[in-house]
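Late entry, evening session. Most of the bench is empty. Finally got around to the prediction I had been postponing all week. Sequence below, unchanged from the version circulated by S.P.
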Amino acid sequence: MGLTSNHLRHAIRAIQKDVDAMGDLLNELDAKLGDGDLGVTMVNGFNNMAAIADDLPDDFGRACMEAAKAMTKVSGSSFGTLMGISLMAVAKQTKGEDTIPWSRLSDLIGTAIDAMMERGGASLGDKTILDSLEAIRRACTELDRPDTVLSASVEAATDALYSFRDKPNRIGRARIFGDKTIGMDDPGMVAIQKMLQAL
């Protein structure tokens, strides 16, 4: 058994269940480094995706595309846009497939990272969600069971968050604060950790 649309439906519902509390924390963190709207993006995006979760097709690629549309429909923020772009990139790679081997997950995460780097202009090492996703991609390489994939992903996201805490943000609005961002968590990296913990 591999990754299916049922897993996507479950993930959306699990995160949406915790998204209000998550949103408050992320708004607070984002207010220190950005526009203060990351939590709003998460709440609106996951509420909208949850509203269509039951109707997502079994074709995993098409399901990812529908989820991307639901996210971007209610979000004008950079985080929402990047989430949509990542889902669309995965959708193109998996269109027509109902089941994706877990061993392909690291490659799909890599596809999402490449798409976000091309659109957003960030690089690995800039202290963004890309660094969390790259850590997860490496941790999931060659794993082929959902339980080990999830535990490895949570650990990788947490380790990335901690390892980048004492580095400055190098892109986006946060970069204007320079070395003042040392010792502060990147809100997007926190969002990745919290979403995985919700699963």
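Two things to note before I forget:
The chain has one domain: 5-198.
The radius of gyration is 16 Å.
Will write this up properly tomorrow.
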